[in-house]
Each structure stands twice: as structure tokens, then as C-alpha cells.
Amino acid sequence: MLNFASQGGFTPVKILAGERVFEMFAPQRTSIIFGITNEPWAAAAYRIEDLIVQLERNLNEWDLIAISASETAWLVRHNTVVYELQCTISPDIMGLSTNFFYRCPECNEHIYECTHLLISAQDLHQEPNADAVATARAPTACPSCGGKIQSLGPGVSFCLDCDWEDGLSAQTISNPNS
After folding, report:
1. In a 10 Å sphere around its CB, with 0-12 CB exposed, 13-18 middle and 19+ buried, how is residue 130 labelled?
2. pLDDT, tens digit (0-9, with 9 covering 90-100), for 26-80
3. HEC profile for 20-77?
């Protein structure tokens, strides 16, 4: 089963997954893919033991929303940055009708451009040290592949073309059976 290396005992019962995440988890499924409703446009879903993984078209393809039984929701980016959403989402939801969760209710910025909802990543509120300043001034080319670097804030960045990342802490979803 998928386990969250989490803080505060967060245990998901449902994952709303972007297209690539849905495909990535598919080999671990313990049930066949099924439609959520009888409608032909309905999102597909499957189980991984007791966890339901559902395709969600309003998510970026590498993002997922983990939902607990208490309707707490975390947005997890493909690079393992985790945000605690300030809304409740029922595990019984059939699909989201909007992508409202990408806006921060505190500052109204895109969730990736603020730190209000951030659960795991380098602490961006600390005074930058020499390494953080050097990273902030780093070139826009990836040192691994030469691709474009996306900055999430001072000292936190990742490559859009490969798996290189800098300044991100590991909050991972893992399969203990692998």
C-alpha cells in the first residue's frame, strides 16, 4: 500500500491524481480500473488495497490531492513539495469542477508562489545563507541536462526537463513492497 511519510498522522483514503500520477500508480493497483459513475465522461479509478486512486482532470498531470477520512486535503507536487489545502474535500467526491485549490486563500497568489500552505520544503522564511543566495542567483540552465530551471523561491528550484532539483526536502509517497 502507498504510505505517506507524513507529519501529524495524515492518512489518505483517496488520491485525486493528475494523468501522469494516475498512470504511474496503475501498476500497483489491486483492482481493475472502474468508472466512478455510469456517465461515459466520468473519471476512471482503481484501488491500491484500501486506497482509492481517481483520475482528476482539473489537476496538473504530475500533481495529486491526498484526502483523509476527515476530509483534510494535501496537494502534493511531483517534486514532493506538499501543501495543506485550506478547504475540505469529501473522500466521496466524484470529481472536481474547478482548480480553485491552486490559489492561496491568504494572498490569492498561485499556490506555488507563496508559502502560506507549504508543509514540506526548505524553510523560505529564514534569512538566506550564502548557499541560498548563490542558488537564488544561479543560472536558468540546469547543471544536469542544460534544460530550463523553475524557481519556487529563494534556494528552491527544479528542472523542467529532467529530475534535477535543489533545496527540496523529501516528503515522499512510497510503496513499502517495492
Report:
1. exposed
2. 888 888 777 765 555 556 889 998 899 999 989 999 999 999 999 999 999 876 7
3. HHHHHHHHHCCCCCEECCCCCCCCEEEEECCEEEEECCCCCCCCEEEEECCCCEEEEC
CA dist 22 → 25, 57, 112, 158 (Å): 5, 11, 21, 22
pLDDT per position as a tens digit, 99-137: 888 988 888 888 888 888 888 754 333 333 334 333 333
Task: Record the cell numbers describing residue 63, joined without a space.
Answer: 500533481
Q: Which residues of 66-84 are buried (b: 16+ CB within 10 A; e: fewer)?
A: bbbeeebbbbbbbbbbbbb
Rounded CA separation 74/80 (Å)? 11
CA 2 to centroid of chain Cα atoms: 14
pTM for this model (two decimals): 0.61
